[in-house]
Amino acid sequence: MTTGALMLDIAGTELTTAEAKQLKRPEVGGLILFARNYESPAQLRTLMVGIRAIRPDLLVAVDQEGGRVQRFKEGFTRLPPMAVLGQLWQQDSGSAIAQAHEMGWLLATELREYDIDLSFAPVLDMDYGVSSVIGDRAFAASTAGVEQLAGALMSGMHEAGMAATGKHFPGHGAVEVDSHHGLPVDERPFAQIEAQDIRPFSALIRRGLDAIMPAHIQYTQVCSQPAGFSEFWLQRQLREALRFDGVIFSDDLSMEGAAAVGSYAKRAEAALTAGCDMVLVCNAPRAATEVLNFLATSNEPTSYRIARMRARPKRQADPERLARARTLAASLVAMSESAA
Predict the structure, then answer these.
(1) CATH homologous superfamily for the domain 6-339
(2) Minimal CA–CA distance to 201: which of 238, 163, 250, 239?
């Protein structure tokens, strides 16, 4: 089974006629939701029913990591920044791993209640104290901490029927520039990146990581192209060296870190040629249309892998476990705020 290679977004809390028509186009394979698309659980349910009536096969995603990256808040459990689990891991690794599993299960369980397929999580970047855009989104400063905690979060997501996406390959933690606003440059040699940043990706791939999102970062000692447009990173490293056969999502092509590649059509073509299975175009409706029109006339093959990312049918969650997980989340949030 194949599906369209573009994931785009919509403007508001309900579908317009034009958006509904656009979602029917075969080049569209996914929809990403943002905070502007959410006002209440009832509204989200209505929106998702409408989306599924048009495209039951559409891959619907959201960034619901926790901490400062949580699009749905009112009516959802407030999730902690993952760094608080890293702090606990230093004191009691076993307990922290168990709590990370429950946070992954809770995150996925709440989204699956509304028929949403996936959250782009977990973050596998290292916290070097350099990148403000990553910061407390990272689990830890050690590879072991990131591997164990992110792996536990992934296993919790899997238990709830949701696929996991590791980001931002091969690592965003060592650069200061935010790739939303510019093109970060990482001047470290490949050997250092391989020995540190790539290790959590490698570990989770062996444990069944479903998808990976590369970074809009130029690793100048390795390749002239940003990672998301680089055959070296996506083919030679991910597919061959790490033997990854999951989905590769581009990061948002409207980010400034992607601008040097050229027009939106050129960005999409470069990402797909390098090895991405699906490209994201967010917060830029004209750009999404440009990419749609490019895909409609291109010979880019559609990927058989994307269908694997659709969530399993939702199951009724144990109310007692749900209550315990929500209490745990509240205590972790409180802990993170007291440490701030």
Answers:
(1) Glycoside hydrolase, family 3, N-terminal domain (3.20.20.300)
(2) 238
